[in-house]
């Protein structure tokens, strides 16, 4: 029996010398050996002439391994090969021997410089204000409300001082409100936020107002300090995308997958207004973005411009090999299974082996041999992204404090400018007659 097969770890792992298969191992080779032992036949292995899996062309011609079986050039093809409606019209499949999700391979997580990281503790707390002014940055809402509150309390304290005048002054004793201007009330109110002493003259109503303002300031400062410490010391690695929907909507990366494959069929013939249709539309408009080998897809991911769609096991194999070679996760598998494919063994239409091989596959699954072989050949990798799980921690670095340092530098520059301004004013006053 002549068997056509493609290199596809962990199911089929080939060592090739030119177009000759020197050695073949993997889950499906164990299955094939089991077939041969049970039904007493020998086999010869070959590579598909065009090195493709097989897809239907516009002229009705089938490419790849599917085409070779369809034209009865070989009796069987091992892949594994995804079972699709179009393929089942041309060839026969055994019962599925495995189900596997399609996942996404993306570049390593990107560490970005966030100059507003010190504002992060209050991010997202002003959702009500967002409805009124949605164009503001998310960090701006709470901080704007704090500044507005400071101004309102300062104005209210000044108004109360003017209404009550010098009557009933309690603190500090016998100090007139009239000598305290509007700007000094506002500045003193702001001083509470930075934990400075409050020396404004206070009547009974003002003292009650300031007391509650101090409570507000203490709670605000304590909340900010605790959140800032936790957000700066516990930093998470943020992947470029977390799901297929995120990838399509954000367009942070372009995406690619194998041409002339079952995946291309699914995306190409999906309705344009669906998520799969939007995925396929990119390659209808730009067919040159598709790749023609797994190696090309991995190379596209390493360029940090593309995400690559493929069966989960193949992606994990690529990541595990890269991790073993370089000692770090340079690529990541996004565990967001958006489609499950069934794998079957390809046979000629009306093949007498179909029922016998399907029965043998069922026995291998029920006996636990298939699971044992999967554990033997399946790769293990920790370079993954789960969209519903907390992302891995990373150590604090200088980039996390860059915005805070810029803030300190800006304050230092303002202080120097204020110092120079004071010197110029003093010199000007000394020069006056």
Shape: elongated
What's the CATH first level of the domain at 117-236? Mainly Alpha
By DSSP, the count of extended strands is 14
Mean pLDDT: 81
CATH architecture of the domain at 117-236, by name, is Orthogonal Bundle
Give the SSE order as H and E letters: EEEHEHEHEEHHHHEHEHHHEHEEHHEEH
Distance between the termini: 114 Å
Low-pLDDT segments: 125-138
Helicity level:
40-55%
Provide a brief overview of the structure.
This protein is α/β, with parallel strands linked by helices and 433 residues long. It contains 15 helices and 14 strands. A hairpin with a 2-residue loop joins β2 and β3.
Overview of the structural elements:
- With 433 residues, the protein is an alpha/beta fold.
- It has a domain at 117-236: Helix Hairpins, CATH 1.10.287.
- The protein is built from 15 helices and 14 strands.
- Strands 1, 4, 5, 6, 7, 9, 10, 11, 12 and 13 form a ten-stranded mixed β-sheet that branches. The chain has a two-stranded antiparallel sheet with strand order 2-3.
- Helix 1 packs across helix 13 and helix 9 (262-268) packs across helix 10.
- The model is unreliable at 125-138 (pLDDT under 50).
What is this structure's SSE topology?
Blueprint: E1 2-5, E2 13-17, E3 20-25, H1 27-39, E4 44-46, H2 64-70, E5 76-82, H3 85-88, E6 92-93, E7 98-107, H4 127-132, H5 140-164, H6 182-193, H7 204-233, E8 235-236, H8 244-250, E9 254-256, H9 262-268, H10 275-285, H11 294-302, E10 306-311, H12 312-326, E11 331-334, E12 340-347, H13 354-367, H14 369-377, E13 384-385, E14 393-394, H15 402-431
Parallel strand pairs: 1-4, 1-5, 9-10, 11-13
Antiparallel strand pairs: 2-3, 5-12, 6-12, 7-10, 7-11, 7-12, 8-14
């Amino acid at each position: 029996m002549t068997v056509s097969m493609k290199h596809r770890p962990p199911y089929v792992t080939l060592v090739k010398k030119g177009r000759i298969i020197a050695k073949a191992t993997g889950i499906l080779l164990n299955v094939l050996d089991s077939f041969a032992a049970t039904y007493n036949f020998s086999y010869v292995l070959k590579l598909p002439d065009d090195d493709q899996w097989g897809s239907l062309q516009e002229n009705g011609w089938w490419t790849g391994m599917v085409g070779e079986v369809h034209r009865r050039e070989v009796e069987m093809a091992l892949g594994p090969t995804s079972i699709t409606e179009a393929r089942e019209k041309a060839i026969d499949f055994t019962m599925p021997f495995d189900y596997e999700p399609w996942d996404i391979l993306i570049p390593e997580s990107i560490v970005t410089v966030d100059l507003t990281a010190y504002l992060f503790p209050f991010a997202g707390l002003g959702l009500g204000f967002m409805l009124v002014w949605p164009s503001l940055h998310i960090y701006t809402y709470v901080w704007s409300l704090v500044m507005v509150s400071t101004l309102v309390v300062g104005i209210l304290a000044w108004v109360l001082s003017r209404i009550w005048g010098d009557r009933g002054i309690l603190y500090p004793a016998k100090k007139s409100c009239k000598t305290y201007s509007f700007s000094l009330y506002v500045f003193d109110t702001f001083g509470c936020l930075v934990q400075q002493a409050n020396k404004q003259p206070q009547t009974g109503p003002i003292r009650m107002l300031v007391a509650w303002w101090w409570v507000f300031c203490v709670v605000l400062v304590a909340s900010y300090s605790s959140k800032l410490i936790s957000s700066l010391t516990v930093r998470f690695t943020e992947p470029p995308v977390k799901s297929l929907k995120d990838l399509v909507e954000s367009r942070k990366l372009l995406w690619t997958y194998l041409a002339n494959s079952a995946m291309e069929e699914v995306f190409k013939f999906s309705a344009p207004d669906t998520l799969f249709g939007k995925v396929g539309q990119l390659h209808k408009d730009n067919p040159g973005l598709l790749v023609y080998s797994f190696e090309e897809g991995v190379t596209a991911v390493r360029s940090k411009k593309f995400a690559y769609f493929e069966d989960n096991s193949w992606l994990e194999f690529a990541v595990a090999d890269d991790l073993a070679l370089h000692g770090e996760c340079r690529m990541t598998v996004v565990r967001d299974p958006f489609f499950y494919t069934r794998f079957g063994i390809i046979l000629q239409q009306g093949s007498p082996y179909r029922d016998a091989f399907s029965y043998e596959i069922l026995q291998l699954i029920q006996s636990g041999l298939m699971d044992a072989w999967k554990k033997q050949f399946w790769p293990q990798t920790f370079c993954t992204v789960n969209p519903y799980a907390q992302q891995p921690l990373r150590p604090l670095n200088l980039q996390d404090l860059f915005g805070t340092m810029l803030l300190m530098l800006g304050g230092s520059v303002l202080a120097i400018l204020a110092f120079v301004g004071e010197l110029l004013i003093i010199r000007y006053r000394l020069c006056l007659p």
